[in-house]
Design a protein that fits this description.
This protein is of the alpha+beta class. The chain has two domains: 166 residues, no CATH class; 184 residues. It has a four-stranded mixed beta sheet with strand order 5-2-1-6. A two-stranded antiparallel ribbon has the order 3-4. It has a two-stranded antiparallel ribbon with strand order 7-8. A hairpin with a 2-residue loop joins strand 3 and strand 4. Helix 8 runs antiparallel to helix 10, helix 8 runs antiparallel to helix 14 and helix 12 packs antiparallel against helix 13. The longest helix is centred in the middle third of the chain and has 22 residues.
Length: 367
Amino acid sequence: MDKFIPGLELSGKLFQLAIEPIMQKVFPQIEYSAARLDYGSDVLGFDTPMSMDHGWGPRLTLYFLEDHYKNYQNQVSDYFANHLPFDIQGFPTNFAEPYADGGVMAYKDSYPIHHMVTITTPEKWFSDYLGVDINDPFSPTTWLTIPQQRLATLQAGQIYYDGLGHLSEIRQRFDWYPRDIWLYILANQWKRIDQDEPFVGRTGIVNDLLGSSLIGARLVQDLMRLGFLMNKTYIPYRKWFGTAFKGLSIAEKITPILNKIFNSENWQEREKHLNRAYLFFGEEHNKLGITPYIKPELSNFHNRPFLVPHSARFADALLGQIEDPEVKSLPPYLGCIDQICDNTDVLEDIDQCKKFQILFKSRSTTK
């Protein structure tokens, strides 16, 4: 295939040209919604022609009411397998079997085809994808153990049709963290920076140039993550971290400074550019108006010749603004799942992520 259209647009064409007509004509009794909200570079809007080799193509999810799901799931899926057009806009609706690597399009001119239309219910989908029960209130530990990369696709994806009338409303619940959860995560992001800020100089002064560079890179990543949180944008998985950062309102101003940190030839130069970044993010914090004003300034780390912003000032101020007793009782400086763990196999397994709720409960400050 020598052409490309964005995957979200292609899935929309699948719905408009194939799924919707079938549902209206053959299954008019079924109430449903249709969307692309889960995995994939296409859902985030970052797919390119290279994305087409796997995990990409005309695909979507249909959401049924529970009774319709039990009574019609297999019937509807089988009908699609034997009646969907063989291609949409020139892209095969059949995916090669055995299913692997997110699915690979493979043209087929006879039925049945192996389509990629998933049929589920809103309750089942949100339980499988986010580990939540949409019929119950979400506890702080529930929020904190949902990987942001999953919330990012939910935020960026597209609902093509909401015949159920409440899929959009459910998604809106995840538009952003509740205020106090946001403050807690922000506080812990500042604390991560505070923990490392003196070490660029400490490693450099003993001529550990590689170590100083590595810590500088880690601080750049943590500052970028702070930028996402300040801009109320969920962080996508690692491949698209930098691409998504470029879309933030702060990116144009701060990116040249961050690049200079990477390109520094010695620790003194690296510290100078890091300090410019610290002051920038301190000002951005004050623009949010979520704590009393904190002066962005630099001073020595104890009596050592390293200038740092003492980022714990921001962390403690944020924790001091939390009102929800459940959030106040959370372990200070622990953070959300993304701040605790960066293991891909964990962050892509919602059941593994949920196990971290035990960590929050075992370290709760509630007596």
